[in-house]
């Protein structure tokens, strides 16, 4: 558990307002590299790019904290399993007394593999992780989220089996590129704010979406 001094140092009037970035996924080696864990991968990519160590257990999450351009940033990977991740995310927000300036990374079967979207709010889209988060935010859906496209299951494949499947080489290459783009978007978000970043980022991703529609499904 982080001590009170850490909380005061990161959440004071003298500092810019902090951001909490939460990646959704399932803990354990057997889930690494699966489609359902791209939220964890985004957190890891961002933490590595900024030199933030993810070495603390806090509010049922693997946790790290640091500054990016002078702005305090908290990073978390809930260890409750996807369907219960609100049990970690809700207490984290309450602990730091944050407004809903939170970004949740999650997989999305409604976007082609490797395409991203940044939104200021939205529903759960039948995503069980987001259902849990919204429940623990007392029904409030007005928090930002970064949607990470993983594509749709082929044919009659069970969506649950698809989510727990690892990416093939082509799909993994798209995800690797998407993680780099996501990291760049988050850095821009911290400096330019959500509205301006979403305008720039979503325009670029729209053209990427169009381009991917002309390519074979990975």
Describe it.
This protein is of the alpha/beta class and 218 residues long. The protein is built from seven helices and seven strands; from the N terminus they run H-E-H-E-E-E-H-E-E-H-E-H-H-H. It has helices at residues 4-10, 38-50, 86-95, 128-136, 159-163, 169-192, 194-213, and strands at 19-23, 56-58, 61-68, 71-78, 102-108, 116-119, 145-149. It has a seven-stranded mixed β-sheet, with helices on both faces. Strand 2 and strand 3 (61-68) form a beta hairpin. The longest helix is centred in the last third of the chain and has 24 residues, at 169-192. It starts with a helix and ends in a 5-residue tail after the last helix. Keywords: Hydrolase. One of its GO terms (molecular function) is hydrolase activity. InterPro entries: Pept_tRNA_hydro (IPR001328), Pept_tRNA_hydro_CS (IPR018171), Pept_tRNA_hydro_sf (IPR036416). Belongs to the PTH family.
User: What multimeric state do the chains show?
Assistant: single chain
Q: What percentage of the residues does DSSP assign to strands (E)?
A: 15-25%
Taking all residues together, what is the mean pLDDT? 87
Low-confidence sequence ranges: none
Apparent shape: globular
Spatial strand arrangement across the major sheet: 2-3-4-1-5-7-6
Task: Spell out the key features of this protein.
218 residues, alpha/beta, seven-stranded mixed β-sheet, 7 strands, 18% strand
